Amino acid sequence: NGFSSQANQAPVISEAVSEDVLVSREEMSFRLWINSLGNSTYIDNVFEDLRNG
């Protein structure tokens, strides 16, 4: 039927890009929320600034 061969292919580049956009959007939302709590430490990059806890 021709549909089964496409199901086994690797994800398309546009899907990977959209996943990166989703991660960056979630990171930005989380960073803004953390900074809105009024802590003395400003978080600029969630992955780098919170790496060691």
What class would the helix/strand composition place it in? mainly alpha
Shape: elongated
Q: What percentage of residues falls in helices of 4 or more residues?
A: 55-70%
- The topology string of helices and strands comes to HHH
Biggest sheet features: none
Span between N and C termini?
A: 52 Å
Mean pLDDT: 79
Structural domains: how many: 1
Descriptive key words:
single chain, 53 residues, mainly alpha
Describe the model:
InterPro entries: CH_dom_sf. This protein is an all-alpha fold and 53 residues long. Helix content is 60%, strand content 0%. The protein contains three helices and no strands. It has helices at residues 4-7, 13-36, 46-49. The longest helix is centred in the middle third of the chain and has 24 residues, at 13-36. The chain is elongated and about 55 Å long. It starts with a helix and ends with a helix.
Topology summary:
Layout: H1 4-7, H2 13-36, H3 46-49
Quick overview of this protein structure:
By secondary structure, this protein is mainly alpha-helical. It has helices at residues 4-7, 13-36, 46-49.
